[in-house]
Design brief:
Blueprint lengths: L3 H8 L3 H9 L7 E2 L5 E2 L2 H15 L4 H11 L7 H33 L11 H7 L10
Antiparallel strand pairs: 1-2
């Protein structure tokens, strides 16, 4: 059995985050000591490592919950896991598109600004004040 502090060290997940995952019922302490301290099994260490990796990839809690449930049925078809990954990949691609547009607009605004002018003549300030100066109506 591992304490919550040991679990935190082993997985590089903050204690407060571990408690949050407990509240969301993604992990559960295996038992409690006489002093009411949480005790975690190796299974929970592995599950928390799984959650951390999934969170590092940007997956949401409901997707992680679904993947954990799928992992509990190793003989099932992995179609649903593939669907979770594909859905998340498509969301990431959309975010990248939006970030590229944002980068292009910010680059345009920044290059339109000469840092030697007074603020009242600053193109960055003018662009943010007057949306008509932007190349796009949506960022």
């Amino acid at each position: 059995m591992y304490s919550i502090g040991q679990l935190s060290e082993m997985t590089n997940v903050k204690v407060s985050t571990i408690r949050f995952y407990e509240e969301k019922k993604l992990i559960m302490p295996t038992n409690r000591s006489e002093g009411n301290q949480r005790g975690y099994s190796q299974n929970e260490v592995e599950k928390l490592s799984f959650i951390k990796h999934a969170r590092d990839l940007g997956l949401g809690l409901e997707s992680i919950r679904k993947l954990i449930e799928l992992n509990n049925h190793p003989e099932e078809n992995c179609r649903d896991a593939h669907e979770v990954a594909e859905t998340h990949l498509n969301l990431v691609k959309e975010k990248i598109k939006k970030l590229k547009k944002l980068e292009k607009e910010l680059k345009r605004i920044a290059t339109g600004c000469s840092s030697g002018v007074k603020v009242k003549e600053c193109y960055v300030i003018k662009s943010l004040s007057d949306h008509k100066l932007c190349n796009s109506t949506k960022h």
